[in-house]
Amino acid sequence: MLNSKYFYYLFLINALINIINYVPRTLINDRFAGALPSIFISMVVGTMLLYGFAKTISHFGGKGLPEIFAERFSKIISLPLLILYSGLWFVAGIITMISFVDITVRFVSPDISPYAVIIGFLLVVSFFAHLSEESILYALETLLFLFTPIILYILIKSLLSPDFSWDAVMQVITYMWTKPKYGTVAAGTFIFSGYFNLAIFNRCFKRLNTRYIWTIPITGLMILLVTFLVPIGYHGTIGVEDHIFSWFSTADSIRMELFIIERLLFLFYTIYLALSLVSAVIHWHVGLELFKGAFGPKEGNSGFKKADWWILGSFSLLTVLIMSQLDQERLALFGQWFLNVRLVGEFALLAVILFVRIRSVKKA
């Protein structure tokens, strides 16, 4: 069994990776229409979901959702639930990879084929998604220790740059009391959705220590505010809407005169490429284990090892197919729909796991 610190790592990787995904785009699109109040609402809602799920599932130490559902529900109930959430988390990984393909083509190598990039990503993600939970968490810990200090340096440098306009930030803050939107709240709460990975990674914990869980809403709020306000400070309240991936455009605006790399973009790209692939590995590992768990608990899954490659191969083909059908506008719409549906799904999952817990207490 592993230390509870890995639970906080699962939150952190999901929070950091969403700096470059559809969360900042959604917030910026609604900067005059409730983005700021949505951020504070997201902190409350996201923390509630995270704390409720983590606290409840910690009572089932060493077990993931497949094992918990196998003990409490019949196949008629557990099979569709596990397949539904498996598909949801596979889609999360798909969106991350397709987004980074677009980023690679736009900012790094416009001449490269996007299909060559996505195939490379799929090979890496499929191989590592097949590994054990412990191996994935150890790799995650190593990457976070390597990259988190650099990310903090980048954020501090961006805020201290003379090109950063605090006037633009203050102008957006004046819209603090506008009515929030569901879509913006759904985007903001995705920062906290790393807790969902406990659906499988709870197998690694005997009992979660939630003593420091109060740090999560503070960290999440800071990340959301920085994600939203820094691009506005660089590109202005109007100009920021012209940038599809606002954080990469922002990174391209920052110079590192005293560093070995003059353009921050390449360092930023390298860090977030590694983090994006690790995030996709975690999402696909959870999706894979939930899918297998729909047809039998973990102890009966030894015969599924060969089927892992068929499952991962099928979703890899689906990823290529989805990418071929999505242009930039459709991809953004697809991402927003995922965020909207995901929030409802997380509330439903929390209700289910609470029901299971209350039922267990009554039987005891």
TrEMBL record:
This protein's UniProt keywords: Membrane, Transmembrane, Transmembrane helix
Bilayer-spanning residue ranges: 7-23, 35-54, 75-100, 112-129, 136-156, 182-200, 212-234, 266-286, 307-325, 337-356
KW Transmembrane helix (keyword) present: yes
Record InterPro entries: Spore_GerAB
Pfam families, sorted: Spore_permease (PF03845)
Record bears the keyword Transmembrane helix: yes
Protein name: GerAB/ArcD/ProY family transporter
Taxonomic source organism: Paenibacillus haidiansis
